[in-house]
Design a protein that fits this description.
single chain, alpha+beta, Protein Transport Mog1p, Chain A, 2 domains, seven-stranded antiparallel beta sheet, four-stranded antiparallel beta sheet, 4 helices, 11 strands
């Protein structure tokens, strides 16, 4: 009797099962929402970062850095450069720079005590001036510092920007070995990035503040 029973492992049945699995799997994949492209080019010579920001990006040899699930920053770019380690430059948009004060001058003062602290580099401010980003008041900080014990130095440009009742930042840092020389080109790309940056919609905090205002709180 066992000899007359058809085995489930026969080729015909295996093919049917595989087809059913393939169709089911395709159906599940088709039901998954399509993820939007992180960067979308416009006819204005800019790119859109999802639907949140618009800016002019650096050349393609700069790698996009993004953090969409929380972290030290949301988006930025990285350039590895020829030369002895460390020879690289990063710049980024950061929604939560060091400090908690809503006053630009106070925030800048505290920021300088924390910036690059974990790297062992004690930075010095070489220039501080008022600026504007996307029509918003800002403070521009130029800083430099060294760590001879690790044979490295860094040069940075930081914009602290007043956005509603919050302060956000744009940060560019160039790393070089102690005997290396700084280049101006990457900082020019950073300036273009920061000065072209547009906030396309209100963030959570701005929306929350509006709701509180409407409620008379």
């Amino acid at each position: 009797m066992k000899a007359n029973q058809k085995s489930f492992s026969t080729p015909g049945i295996r093919v049917c099962v595989l087809l059913m699995v393939a169709v089911f799997g395709f159906g599940c994949a088709a039901m998954q929402p399509e993820r939007p492209k992180t960067l979308t080019s416009t006819d204005r010579g800019t790119v859109l970062f999802l639907d949140r920001y618009e800016f002019k990006r650096p050349p393609p040899n700069w790698s996009l850095m993004k953090n969409l699930e929380g972290g030290d920053f949301e988006l930025g770019f990285l350039l590895f450069e020829k030369g002895e380690f460390p020879s690289q430059t990063t710049f980024m948009f950061d929604e939560e720079p060091y400090g908690g004060s809503q006053d630009l001058a106070s925030r800048a003062k505290y920021y300088c005590t924390r910036f690059l602290f974990n790297s062992g580099i004690e930075v010095r401010v070489t220039k501080e001036e008022k600026a504007t980003i996307d029509g918003k008041d800002a403070i521009a900080l130029s800083m430099e510092g060294e760590n001879p014990n690790r044979n490295e130095k860094a040069k940075s440009k930081v914009y602290l920007v007043k956005k509603g009742n919050r302060i956000v930042s744009f940060v560019c840092t160039m790393w070089r070995p102690m005997n290396g020389t700084y280049a101006q080109g990457p900082f020019d790309y950073f300036e273009t990035f920061a000065q072209s940056f547009k906030f396309l919609k209100k963030d959570f905090y701005e929306g929350f503040e509006e709701e509180l205002t409407k409620a008379g709180l």
